[in-house]
Amino acid sequence: MEQYEIDYIKSNLQSYLETKGIRTDKFFTCINPEHSDQHPSMKYFDDYKIHCFGCGATYDLFGAIAAIEHLDRKEAFKKAIDYYERRTLTPDTIIKQKTVKNEQKPAKNYEKAYKYWQNALKDNFEAQEYLLSRGIDLATANRFGLGFNSFYFEKTNTRLNAITIPLSKNCFSARNINPNEEMRYYKTKDSDVDIFNKQAMTNKQPICAITEGEFDCLSFETLNVNCVGLGSANNVNLFIESEKDKNKTFIIALDNDEAGQKWAQKLKEYFKENKIKFAEFDNCGYKDPNEALVKDKSAFSKSIFSLIKKLEKQNNAEM
Hints:
Layout: H1 3-10, H2 13-19, E1 42-45, E2 49-52, E3 58-59, H3 61-69, H4 73-84, H5 91-98, H6 111-122, H7 125-133, H8 138-143, E4 147-153, E5 158-168, E6 171-176, E7 185-189, E8 207-211, H9 214-221, E9 227-229, H10 236-241, E10 249-252, H11 258-273, E11 278-280, H12 289-295, H13 297-318
Parallel strand pairs: 8-9, 8-10, 10-11
Antiparallel strand pairs: 1-2, 2-3, 4-5, 5-6, 6-7
Helix pairs in contact: 2-3, 3-4, 9-12, 12-13
C-alpha cells in the first residue's frame, strides 16, 4: 500500500471517533487505557491526531482503534484498512477510476460499506437529529438503509459529514447534515445514476408517487405512501425508460419550481401517450414534499391521503 493511501485512511480518525460517541469539537475523556482521566483532557487536531494534555498520549487512527478496541497496532492497522480502504471516496479517486484509458473497470460494490455506515448512524446523535429535523423518523431511515459517513476532500481540505442513501449496490447519494457549510449536497457514483426506491414502480401497490429528491420520497414513505425518488428532475428520462407497472396510478409530485414543472409536463405527456393513469400533487403549496412535511405534517398527510382515496374510488369505479 502506498503512503498516500495510508495517509488518506488516517484522515478518517474524526469519523471513527464520532462513531464511538466521542464528540471531537471539544475536549473528551482520554482513551488511553492506562490513564484514569477524571477531567476530559484529550483533544482532536486537524492533522488527524488526538493528544492528551493529562498523560501526554498521542494517537493517530491506528493508535485510537488499538486503544479503544484493545488491539495491538498491527491488528488495528488491519481493521482500519478493512473499515476505510474501499468505503470512502474523494473526487480524486473517482476521477482516477474514470480516466483509465481503454480499460473497463467493474463498478464498485458498496453493500459492505452500507452496513458499516448504517451502524455509524445508530451511534451518531447529530445525524439522527438531522433526520428528525427533516421529518424522517428512524424507523423509515432503517427501512431504507440510510447511514452516516464522514467524507474527506483532500483538494479543498474539507469534510462532509453526511447521511448516506443507497440508490443501488454501486451508487449512493450523500446529504450534508450541516447545511450552512459550503458543500451542502454531494452525490457520488461509479456507474450510471439510479432511481431511489426503484421497486416502488413495480411492486403490488396500486399507486406510486414520483418525487425529485430522495428526502421528498422519504417524506411520502414515512407516511407509508408508495413512492419513487428520481434524485433530480433531469432523471425523468431514466424513469420513462425504466421498467414499471403500467397499471399503477402515478402521482406526480415534483418540485414547484421552473425545472420541476418543466419535467412534470414531460411526465404528463408520457403518461397520456401510453394511457397510464396519473394525478398531480401540489405539495400543499410548498416547494417540495419534504418542505410540506416539515412545515405542516398534518396538512401534508391530509392532502395526500385525500388524493389517494379519490384515486382509489376512481379505480374501483372503472373495474
